[in-house]
Amino acid sequence: MPDKCRDRERIAAISGAGEVPSLPVSAIRGNLCFRCFSPSDDILKCSGCRRAYYCSKKCQKLDWSLMHKNHCKIFQTINEVEEQKYQASRTWAEYRAYLLYIVRVIRNAAPADEDLRYIVQAQAYCASCRRSAIHLSNRKTLLHRCEACRLVFSCADCSPTPEHSPSICDAYQNFARIENFRIAFFEETGKGAPVTCTQFPSPTRKFLKNCAGWYDYFVKISDKPQVKGKFKLDFNSIEDAITRNGTTIEKDEAERMFMFLLCATDNLTMPLTIISALEDISWDKPQLNVHIVGGTEREIVALGNFEEMLHLIPSLRGLHTTVIGPEIPGGFEGKGHYLPRQNVDCCPTCKADGRQRSISLYQGVYHDFMKASEYRKPDLAVLFNSGWVDGEDAKLHWEPTIVALVAAGVPALFTTYNEGEARNEQTRMKELGAKVLVEAEENKWKGLVPTPEFIDEEYGMWYNNAYRYIIQGSN
């Protein structure tokens, strides 16, 4: 039994939830154990809710005491609601509407529990009739999984083989491969994802705008010359020559290195996307003040990678980052909503050269922070995947923040998960009178780890910071 996965709550309490992998989709769809994330040929299902799966009675008992006892009865209630909404067949649009309804029910019942919503969104369902696993279980109808990707299903009433295209099957196989790597990486290191910043500061400035993408970054800017010749230039797989002619050891080593660097892009996407924006606005000063707007624990964990900015911009002597958002963890020991500037350790070379990093936190919405005595106008405000137009708090929280940013003339970088979201945001931004410096475009420095889309697009995948645009002031 994998020890770290089994004990992930204890590890999260010590190191932070951002360092612990979330429940895999492969577990939600019955391939892995909910507690230790191990595969099993004889997977056990919770008899109460029929949504949690286990490799052994031992794991089931442990998960009950740590997690599932808080979920099982809620899931049983959700199952009853699902059955009330039963249809013998649905289109994707109908299934999506049904799923959104169930998610709203969960949000009303347990607004703080994202795991509940995620498990229902990612549930298994028939690719033809789109009845859920719960619907089919109630009718003693079996679900057949695709033998290749094991993440797409058909029910016994529809087809013995799930109907999905080869490209979708390949995408899900790749996603499952990445999930398995991240589980193994967590078991080995206790970390949720790899971190691989440039080891030493660069003596000369190498601009990201001169790179085609991640391959160029690792080979030409960072310190990973061993990448050259092993991976394709678009950084989507190992070179064909290694796949065809390499020994088993060479293939395994290349695959592990590729997966490590691929997963590392999900951490490096933040600092590199910021550096790219600084190049766009021609910023070049010795001190950089960045505000991460709408930040969560994910952004706080990622701050460890921000030293890459010191390493890639030789003229930069000091970097201060403030993370602002209502979901920032509290407990500032009597300091109210604001945690004052804290120095962060730098690498020995940066310290010897007198470079410094610091962070501060503000728990609340950004337009309130702008009125606080601690506020200092940043060189760049950054909103990573904020969804500021379409979210439930769009009008109440986000729009006042956007209006305040525009009025203050602050350069602001926005990223989104997909092109449609970016275009929609930019259109609304122009309606609010904002001046767009960089039009919505695909981000060269997006994270390369895919995440399945369960509601907006059937079988779609999204990526961290996939698209970006920059505004400053008003027209």
Q: What do these coordinates show?
A:
- The chain has 475 residues and is α/β, with parallel strands linked by helices.
- It folds into three domains: 3-183, no CATH class; 185-263, no CATH class; 269-474, Rossmann fold (3-Layer(aba) Sandwich), CATH 3.40.50.
- It contains 18 helices and 14 strands.
- It has an eight-stranded mixed beta sheet with strand order 7-8-6-5-9-10-14-11, with helices on both faces.
- Helix 17 links the parallel strand 9 (380-383) and strand 10 (412-416).
- Helix 5 packs across helix 6 (92-109) and helix 6 (92-109) runs antiparallel to helix 7 (114-121).
- The longest helix has 33 residues, at 248-280.
- The model has no long low-confidence stretch (mean pLDDT 93).
| Largest sheet descriptor | 8 strands, mixed
Oligomer: single chain
**CATH topology grouping of the largest domain:** Rossmann fold
| End-to-end separation | 60 Å
**Poorly predicted ranges:** none
Number of domains: 3
Number of distinct helices: 18
Beta-strand content bin: 5-15%
Based on Cα principal axes, name the global outline.
globular
Can you lay out the helices and strands and say which pair or pack?
Blueprint: H1 3-6, H2 8-15, H3 25-28, E1 44-45, E2 53-54, H4 57-66, H5 72-84, H6 92-109, H7 114-121, H8 133-138, E3 143-145, E4 153-155, H9 166-189, H10 214-221, H11 240-245, H12 248-280, E5 287-293, H13 297-302, H14 307-312, E6 318-325, E7 338-344, H15 348-352, E8 356-363, H16 366-369, E9 380-383, H17 394-408, E10 412-416, H18 419-431, E11 434-442, E12 451-452, E13 461-462, E14 467-474
